[in-house]
């Protein structure tokens, strides 16, 4: 049985440009990845 967990994290820094994939127990391969430009939610 493979358990899949996901987490969405909203970057706060302009240098937050990485995506990291990790697994425990068994190897994992990302077959598809979608990336979107994020707009600021608070322009203060």
What is the compact description of this entry?
With 44 residues, this protein is low in regular secondary structure. It has no helix or strand.
Protein structure class: little secondary structure
How many strand elements?
0
Query: What oligomeric state do the depicted chains represent?
Result: single chain
The helix tally amounts to 0
Q: What composes the largest sheet? A: none
Mean pLDDT: 76
Shape: elongated
Structure, explained:
The chain has one domain (9-39). It is low in regular secondary structure and 44 residues long. The termini are far apart. Helices cover 0% and strands 0% of the residues. The chain is elongated, with a radius of gyration of 14 Å.
List its traits.
44 residues, little secondary structure, elongated
Topology record:
Blueprint: no helix or strand
């Amino acid at each position: 049985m493979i358990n899949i967990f996901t987490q969405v994290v909203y970057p706060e820094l302009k240098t937050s440009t990485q995506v990291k994939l990790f697994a425990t127990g068994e190897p994992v391969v990302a077959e598809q990845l979608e990336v979107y430009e994020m707009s600021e939610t608070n322009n203060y």
